[in-house]
Specification:
Strand 12 and strand 13 form a beta hairpin. The protein has 13 helices and 15 strands. It folds into two domains: about 230 residues, Rossmann fold (3-Layer(aba) Sandwich), CATH 3.40.50.450; about 140 residues, Rossmann fold (3-Layer(aba) Sandwich), CATH 3.40.50. The longest helix has 22 residues. About 35% of the residues lie in helices and about 15% in strands. The two termini are about 35 Å apart. The chain is of the alpha/beta class and about 425 residues long. The chain has a five-stranded mixed β-sheet, sandwiched between helices.
């Protein structure tokens, strides 16, 4: 009998991660002679450890097809790292027991850099323990920092939301700048990589249009220079809009704002750059300032999803299945850019070991020489990624998203208690 398939989602979700799930499901449908049943693990690797699986074969086709335009993680995602095989062998033994109990021979794990570490660990463990398992990583992250791929599925839609929100908010600010707010600051996600801040720069159509300032995680923040730039722009334009990476650091390499420390060693939760910058502006320049923190909104905005992003997210899911059918193992599909204009791309693949937990930051060529905006090279790279509208269907004025039955698979093993979370590699956030 053909082996069964297990799919899982991990890390911060995106507006298009479920499109990748749909791509996997479609791929399995197209190769019924090669695969058995397809399951999903609730909350990613946590569900796999707990034997908390759902049977996708019991879902109706319309509900599964609706995944293509549904944000969030339909099956639940997690931030949970497996420990090293040497010291946490019991975790991997449990996984192999669960896989064997449900005849699982294919494991597709959909996530970012930390999640690819988890996928690689499972791949290596299965080989060392002699369990016949094909493991495929599937890329996603709004941070756009995955190595080996031209762009990360999830980024294009988040970038479109950020650029659109900046342009719309700027019109509000400009309309009342004479007697009200002079400075508006929007904080976007990006711990070590300023890709989303760069995307905000796309909103600027003419030289003095908003945003007038982009603050990248890759460039040190200098308070005096920043204040001088804000003052000059307000005096010349009448107002100033700033897009700032949450991972902004000072000249000493310290984050400008830390929301909280995690119990996981060497991991901190960022947040609060915008209000901190706003307070600096109030104190130094005595200007009225407002700030915004899109937070989850930027990664959940499927109502303004990028058609390019949705297409690519589905494509990497389907390609993961094709790679498995071809006998590949321990790989991750990646996007290859063939040209900017017209925008053409293809799907290739790389070894998980090469890209797991490796971050790609905004290159110097994409950051203007003064450090406060994007270059034309950045625009050429970013512009195709936000093109096209992938609007979900609307009912009674609201988007209509997938509603799955989430039919549980009968457990065959004793309950399992999760270990306390282990410290992630390289001090990064958990998968």
């Amino acid at each position: 009998m053909p082996a069964n398939v297990l799919y899982g989602q991990a890390g911060g979700v995106t507006a298009v991660i479920n499109a990748s799930a749909h791509g996997v499901i479609q791929g399995v449908r197209h190769h019924r002679d090669h695969f058995g049943r397809i399951y999903a693990a609730r909350e990613g690797i946590i569900g796999a450890l707990r034997e908390d699986l759902v049977d996708l074969e019991r879902e109706d086709a319309a509900s599964l097809d609706a995944l293509r335009h549904t944000p969030g993680g339909a099956f639940g995602a997690c931030r949970y790292d497996l420990g090293p095989l040497e010291s946490h062998k019991h975790q991997y033994e449990r996984l192999m027991e669960v896989f064997a109990a449900h005849d699982i021979g294919y494991f597709f794990y959909n996530g970012g850099g930390g999640s690819m570490v988890t996928a690689e660990k499972v791949h290596v463990a299965a080989q060392q323990m002699g369990y016949p398992l094909t493991v495929m990583g599937i890329p996603k992250t709004i941070d756009n920092d995955l190595a080996g791929t031209d762009t990360s599925p999830g980024f294009g839609s988040a970038a479109k939301y950020v650029a659109t929100s900046v342009r719309e908010a700027a019109l509000d600010v400009a309309s009342m700048a004479e007697s009200s707010t002079k400075v508006f600051i929007m904080e976007v996600m990006g711990r070590h990589a300023g890709w989303l801040a760069a995307a905000g720069g796309l909103a600027q159509g003419r030289p003095d249009d908003a945003p007038q300032i982009v603050l990248f995680a890759e460039r040190a923040f200098h308070r005096r220079a920043f204040m001088d730039r804000v003052r000059e722009i307000v005096e010349r334009v009448g107002y100033c809009v700033v897009v700032a990476s949450e991972g902004l650091r000072d000249a000493d390499g310290q984050f400008l704002s830390v929301a909280e420390s995690s119990h996981v060693e060497d991991w901190i939760q960022l947040g609060g750059v915008a209000p901190n910058l706003a307070e600096m502006v109030r104190r130094d320049l005595d200007l009225k300032v407002h700030w915004a923190l899109p937070d989850y909104l930027q990664r959940a905005a499927a109502h303004i999803g990028s058609a390019t992003d949705v297409e690519q997210a589905a494509a990497v899911g389907e390609r993961a299945v094709e790679l498995a059918v071809a006998g590949e193992n321990g790989r991750m599909p990646v996007i290859r850019r063939e040209s900017d204009e017209p925008y053409e791309w293809s799907v290739d693949s790389v070894d998980l070991a090469r890209i797991a937990d490796v971050e790609t930051t905004v290159p110097e060529a994409f950051i203007r020489e003064d450090g406060y905006h994007i270059t034309e090279a950045a625009r050429r790279y970013l512009a195709p990624l936000i093109r096209g509208e992938a609007r979900p269907p609307f009912i009674n004025g609201l988007p209509d998203y997938a509603r799955l039955g989430m039919f549980p698979v009968e457990r065959r093993l004793p309950p399992y208690e999760l270990d306390e979370q282990v410290a992630p590699q390289k001090g990064g956030k958990p998968a």
